[in-house]
Amino acid sequence: MKNSECSNNSNYEKDNIRHELQLLIDKLGFIISLAMNDYININNK
Fold first, then answer.
1. Residue 39 has pLDDT above 60, yes or no
2. Which superkingdom is the protein from (predicted)?
């Protein structure tokens, strides 16, 4: 494998990890907002 191929593969892996991490953060933010809505609704009852 050439150095450029290795570098491209490494960059791809980093981008893929960033993408997966962003998806998890987005999902977590959605879950937290749902939990906060439930908490607010419980307090309003």
1. yes
2. Eukaryota
